[in-house]
Amino acid sequence: METPFRKMHGAGNDFVVFDERPAPLGLTPARAAAIAHRRTGIGCDQFIVIEPPPPGSPADAFMRIRNPDGTEAGACGNATRCVASLLSAETGRPETIIQTIAGLLPSILLPDGRVTVDMGPARLAWSDIPLAAEMDTLHLPLALGPLSDPAACSMGNPHATFFVPDVMALPVETLGPALEHNPLFPEKANIGFAEIQSPTRIRLRVWERAAGLTLACGSGACATIVNAARRGLTARRATIEVDGGILDLEWRQDGHVLMTGPVATSFCGTIDLAAHPS
For the chain, N or C: smaller number of CB within 10 Å? Predict the structure, then answer.
């Protein structure tokens, strides 16, 4: 049986999206990893499944997020915007609520087609990120090559942000894997490399946990505005340029982070799930 899917992206951060609201499809971690493979599957940065909301939840749907290796992720801001746009098209309402394992994410479809999502509060305690031991999350004792002194926070997944003078001069593909797997991060970490261009503009590249260098990382952009503002390097609102486009971020006074950015559908298709291991 051929199963429909949709290939979407937010600022180049790309997803394969399946809908399990009508019925379960058997999208196991192994099958997700096979479909996410860029040579032998469809290929994506994250594998997304839209599921029915849990009983009693105010959410319109539950969104399950898997990395390309099949492991489950707690947050993906760009995917949240994509799914929110699909739900708004179904309901005709600009406002949606998406539930993930990290919590409820309210979103709104804007008149220009972009989507704003409330990614929830940034978590700043060392145990929430988590880190391997108690320490100041604003200044981690971590250095590698030209990099040192990152700040860390959690947006439902762990992030460490290095502030650098020229992000395009860094060998991110070399530095990223070693930092992702550093013992300081017991659950590994997403590693951000941020160049502060002005108090309201940041150039960012992110090595994503279990995914590698992507064109955009929504939760990484959220972590970056939080860590930059905590350091006094930027205001609490800023435009963040990633490899795939532009995201607008705001770290509100109540601790929640709002992210606004584009969504797009690359193509729709069908796939024989039985051809991929379960």
Answer: N
**What is 121-260's CATH superfamily?**
Diaminopimelate Epimerase; Chain A, domain 1 (3.10.310.10)
Does the pLDDT of residue 172 top 90, yes or no?
Answer: yes
Residue type, 268: C
Pick the CATH number of 2-114+263-275 from 1.10.860.10, 3.10.310.10, 2.30.30.760, 3.30.565.10: 3.10.310.10
Q: What is the pLDDT of residues 237-272, one digit of tens each?
A: 999 999 999 999 999 999 999 999 999 999 999 999
Whether 151 shows a pLDDT value over 90: the answer reads yes
Q: 2-114+263-275 and 121-260: same fold?
A: yes
pLDDT tens figures, 109-144: 999 999 999 999 999 999 999 999 999 999 999 999
Domain positions in the chain are 2-114+263-275, 121-260
Report d(CA 129, CA 112) in Å as an integer: 34
| pLDDT 10s digits, 71-101 | 999 889 999 999 999 999 999 999 999 999 9
Examine residue 130 and say whether the peptide bond preceding it is cis (omega within 30 degrees of 0): yes
Is-catalytic flag, 153?
no
Strand segments, DSSP code E, in the chain are 2-10, 13-19, 46-51, 61-66, 72-73, 95-100, 103-109, 115-121, 143-144, 147-148, 151-154, 158-163, 190-198, 201-208, 212-213, 237-242, 245-251, 256-261, 264-272
Q: Is 44 a catalytic residue?
A: no
CA dist 118 and 29 (Å) reads 27
Q: How far lies 247's CA from each of 10, 78, 200, 262, in Å?
A: 9, 10, 12, 8
Catalytic residue among 44, 153, 217, 222: 217
